[in-house]
Structure formats: C-alpha cells, structure tokens
Description:
By secondary structure, the protein is an alpha+beta fold.
Amino acid sequence: MMxxxxxxxxxxxxxxxxxxxxxxxxxxxIIGITVPTILTQFSGFEDTKRPEFIVQASFIAxxxxxxxxxxxxxxxxxxxxxxxxxxxxDGDYSIDCISEQVNATDPDTTVTSTFGRKIxxxxxxxxxxxxxxxxxxxxxxxxxx
Length: 145
C-alpha cells in the first residue's frame, strides 16, 4: 500500500498573541455598561463651588451685622432703612438690609418699641450661582443721649 502525501494544514493560532473578535466584543460590552454607571456617581460635581459661596455669603452677612451693631438704634436706619431694603454690594454678592423695630417678647412682630431693632440681611450672588441666604440679628443698643 502506497501512502499518499497529504499536506498538513495547520491553521492553529494558539502560538500567536492577540485577542479574538469575540473577546474584543465582550470587552466593549462590559466597558459600555460600566462607564455610564461610574460616571453617574460623579454627576453631582457641577455644584462643587456652592459650599464656598455659602461660607463667603455667611462671612459677608456677619461683617455687615457687626458694622451695623457698632451704631446706635436711631442711626442704624441710615445704613439699613426701616421697611424698605437698602442694597449694597461686596464683590460678587449683593446685600439687602431691612431694619424693623421689634418687641422683646416677640422679635418676629414689627411694633413701635424701644427694645431694639431686628436687622434682616439677604445675601445673594450677582451671577445667580446660589439661592438667597437670609440672616437675622437683633440689635439692642442705647441711644447716645
């Protein structure tokens, strides 16, 4: 019996390095599912400046309240009028100031009183990057007379 010569066809890629098309497709699918899931965790980072704005607004309100508390009750109304808001600016912030005469037993009710004044400061950013912040303080200082 005679042996016929058959060429040996070896199409094995086992010795070659690389990825198959199936492995690449599976990797793309996994990445496509994972990346949006990870990115949604960081979607709230567009508002990272807000805490800084709140601290700055609080500092500006405290500074204005200290400035007003160094005045007497009858002269506060020049810097902070009664009933209508006086607006001033401090950098990127605007401050609305209103003063009201209040009673010692109920500082939320406007009355004609000799107790003191309730100062309401509304601080807001001029670019609208944060909502308005309202601060109240009571000032009970004696008249200079």
